[in-house]
Amino acid sequence: MIVRTALAAFALAALPSAAWAQATAIPASQAPAAAPTPAADAGGLTGSVSDENAWDDIGIAIPAFPTNVSVPTAADGGNTEALGRNLAQVVYNDLKNNGLFKPVGPDRLPAISFATVTFPQFDGWRGRGADMLVQGFVKGGANGSLTVGCYLYDVQLGKELAREGYVVAPADWRRAAHKCADMVYSRLTGESPFFDSRIAYIAETGPKGHRRKQLAVMDSDGANHRFITNGQAIALTPRYSPDYKSIMYLSYLAGSPSIYVYDIGTGHQRLLFRTKNETIAPRWSPDGKTVLFSMSTGGNTNIYKMPAAGGSPVQLTDTPGINVGGSFSPDGSKIVFESDRSGAQQCYVMNADGSNQHRISFFGGRCATPEWSPRGDLIAFTHIGGDFRIGVMTPGGGDMRLLTDSWQDEAPTWSPNGRIIQFFRTAKGSGQASIWQVDLTGRNLRRLPTPVDASDPAWGPVLP
Amino acid sequence: MPPQTNRRLLFATSAIAVSLGLAACSPKPPKSLPPAPGATTTTTMPETTAPQGPVPGSQEDFIASVTSDTIHFDTDMYNIDATSQQILASQAQWLARYPNKNITIEGHCDERGTREYNLALGDRRATAAKNYLVGLGVSPSRINTVSYGKERPVALGSNEAAWAQNRRAVTITVQ
Fold first, then answer.
1. Which of A143, A259, A384, B70 falls between 20 and 30 A from A135, CA-CA?
2. What is the pLDDT along chain B (175 residues), one digit of tens a residue?
3. How far apart are alpha carbons B117 and B129 in whole angstroms?
4. What per-residue confidence (pLDDT) applies to A99?
């Protein structure tokens, strides 16, 4: 064996500058507009996700998005007519893969004309048994830009429920589809959107005893996958900044674990905090101005916070043993973290200044990797009791529920709207890891498609 | 060269040293003189076949000299048990012999822990080994520690036997 302290050559792939999707006005439809009241305000669809939710039985028809004139485009499909089918397919996949509604996609529906987009043929859709109808269009514009329109109709009422338009660069065509799916989802459930978001994670290859671990990013549906680091140094536990401009992650680049801040626009990175001690578990505050990290000194590990731009760390925990991680409440006032000060990993809450540290998990088994929901109502965590499972509880530690049941599910991360949780699952024996997601009912569980094995997912907020 | 061979050579060498030392303490004349040179030719052997141990102070020499380069831990534990104490004592002896050599202690965990906790636990194990060596007189400035958490298992199974092997602290000489 040799000492692994040599600085490896370390190529960082610069990502293209931040993608954009600009809102634009689109024509009203011929259908009368329904009162612009979110379903949640009408009552019945608020509160925790449960079997009472009516919307998962709503049938939604999503025909291909027609174009006025088919013109060449750099987006998938090569021309705007083919792209229109791809757009509808992404909207369909978003709604279907997350167990929301009962969508029917463009492959199983007749094509519609461009003029029909704003003049829906309700009688025909009623005959197909559709409750809701999503129609959209795509038009080629100046400099290769694309304008995508998205309309949601209530077929039974014969009314327009919502419409949005987006101008996107060809490379960002999927964002227009995700925004359309977000509009449909938000209007029908009253929940906040989440499809138009990205995930940072660790791509894994190689043998179990010497896994190659690379920082990678992808869209919330697994598309637009990119490697950021080349795998020469172990990379772990990434976190997107709230503005998507940078990613904090742990790297063995300098031989031992240190936290780096990678700038997505420039492809450069810097050490968060220069120390001879090991620094792990980087976290952002909700406003992106403060970061948490955990540092080992003399065998004990404690949690610190410091300005994201750099500065002096402030120690928040000070107990023998291991205090690690941390996740801010959405208002930034509190932090949930794990500590083994009681003898085994349990979850604790403290004020953001480190005061009033108190244990919240008392349900038997251990509590690890707590993550506060962006909605503030729940904390997701890894429940260790024999197997590792994903659980949720209230910020007071009550109403604990397990959402998964496998050999080793670990490290939950919340969708931007706090309705879905991603985590990684490790296979017994092979050690192969994969990213999965589950909704708060625990019923809609699926594996995310990734090009190679994957772990440590970190879901970013809805894109700006 | 496998470590077992090195250890055997080392044992043979020290046995010779011991017998020489005893001889020095009992200055009795030999009962008979050795045969005159040239009396027999069968005893001359080329010097090139003399045993060649590892380079003194090298990683190979360290492995050959110490009881083990690895100590093990119980689940979630970081205490240095009696077996580990004996192993670390042998490492401290080697370090006393080569005062210019530094070491890195790697702390490792089994796969049955969450990633970040294991990184902290691995650090704890490496630090515990370091502290024990310091207690035996090794300067802390000569010891670097690094935690690999559960990232670098040496046994690849998902069973108690494999996990027991992976809960370890490994000493590596800086060459």
1. A143
2. 344 434 333 333 333 333 333 333 334 444 454 444 444 444 455 555 556 789 999 999 999 999 999 999 999 999 999 999 999 999 999 999 999 999 999 999 999 999 999 999 999 999 999 999 999 999 999 999 999 999 999 999 999 999 999 999 999 999 9
3. 19
4. 75
Identify the pLDDT of residue A55: 58
CA–CA gap between residue A310 and residue A308 (Å, rounded) = 5
Which residues on A lie below 8 Å from B157 (Cβ)? 429
Per-residue model confidence (pLDDT) at position A49: 43
Residue A354 burial by Cβ neighbours in a 10 Å radius (0-12, 13-18, 19+): middle
When divided into structural domains, chain B yields a total of: 1
Q: What are phi and psi of A96, to 5 degrees?
A: -75, -45
Assign A223 to helix, strand or coil: coil
Q: Which of B117, B121, B152 sits opposite A209 (nearest CB)?
A: B152
Q: Using a CB-CB distance cutoff of 8 angstroms, which residues of chain B are in contact with residue A365?
A: none
Distance CA A117, CA A137 (A): 7
Provide the CATH number for the domain formed by A21-189 in this structure. 3.40.50.10070
| Of B18, B106, B107, B92, nearest in space to B62 by CA | B92
> Can you give the three-state secondary structure of A202-213, one letter per residue?
EEEECCHHHCEE
Sign of CA dihedral B19, B24, B25, B28: positive
Q: Does residue B87 sit within a domain?
A: yes
E-strand ranges in A183-322 read 197-205, 212-219, 226-227, 235-240, 246-251, 258-263, 269-271, 279-284, 290-297, 300-307, 314-315
Residue with tokens 């636990």: B121
* Pick among B106, B111, B114, B170 to test the A interface (most A CBs inside 10 A): B114
The answer, for A387 touching chain B at a CB cutoff of 8 Å, is no
Q: How many CB pairs under 8 A join A and B?
A: 104
Hey, how many other C-beta atoms are within 10 angstroms of the C-beta on A11?
Answer: 12
Same fold, A21-189 and A197-462: no
B21: burial class by Cβ within 10 Å (0-12, 13-18, 19+)?
Answer: exposed
**A216-238 b/e with 16+ CB inside 10 Å = b?**
bbbbbbbeebebbbbbbbbbbbb
pLDDT in tens, A360-386: 999 999 999 999 999 999 999 999 999
- Collect all residues with Cβ–Cβ distance below 8 Å to A49 and sequence separation of at least 6: A419, A439, A440, A441
Q: Which helix (H) or strand (E) holds A167?
A: strand A159-168
What CATH code is carried by the domain that includes residue B162? 3.30.1330.60
Q: Give the residue extent of every domain in chain A.
A: 21-189, 197-462
The structure tokens 């965990």 sit at: B109
pLDDT under 50 in chain A at which residues?
1-11, 14-18, 38-52
Architecture of domain A197-462: 6 Propeller (2.120)
Residue of A nearest to B116 (CA): A281
Of A291, A53, A83, A24, the closest CA to residue A185 belongs to A53
**pLDDT of amino acid A21:** 79
The whole-angstrom separation of Cα A223 and Cα A203 is: 14
Contact between B121 and A234 using a beta-carbon 8 Å cutoff: no
Both tokens of residue B5?
């061979």
Q: Would the CB atoms of A296 and B174 count as touching at under 8 Å?
A: no
Return all residues near A343 (Cβ < 8 A) that are at least 6 apart.
none
Please indicate, yes or no, if residue B2 is contained in any of the structural domains: no
